[in-house]
Request: fold
Amino acid sequence: MKRGRLLLALAMGLAVDGPSAALAQQRGAAPAQAARTTQPKPGEPVKPPEPAPPVEPPAPPYEKDLLRLSEIVGSLAFLRSLCTAADAAEWPKRMQALLETEGTTPGRRERLAGAYNRGYSGYALTYRTCTPSAAEATARYLKEGEQLSRNLAGRFGG
Reply:
């Protein structure tokens, strides 16, 4: 598998370098001059070509719900801590478990963590103390999060 990627990278590098050398020849530039532009200077280290980033698989059909759930968990992580709930320490752990389970690619992990951070920081900017509206938001998020979790597990397993 790695060998196939390496060969593909080399072939793509040749395809990119090939036309530019031919174009330089067509313009009347000496072949040696075209070669000099791609050669490292004396004493300069030779850098291997950078591998192409891995192609991210398509998002699963439940991605939108999972991102919403991540945002809710982030909101609850802040609000439950602010209101000194007994389960306050559990919400970051739940998000970590979600990242470990569903964060199958770097891009996906970034999206999930970004949703969590949006939920957390949205309330961190607004609330400094536990107010009745913070308690109401907590109750609503607990209800919505529970419903999302049940729907995801019921439709897609889990």
Observations:
- The longest helix spans residues 2-26.
- The chain is about 70% helix and 0% strand.
- Helices lie at 2-26, 31-38, 63-82, 90-102, 106-124, 132-156.
- The radius of gyration is 26 Å.
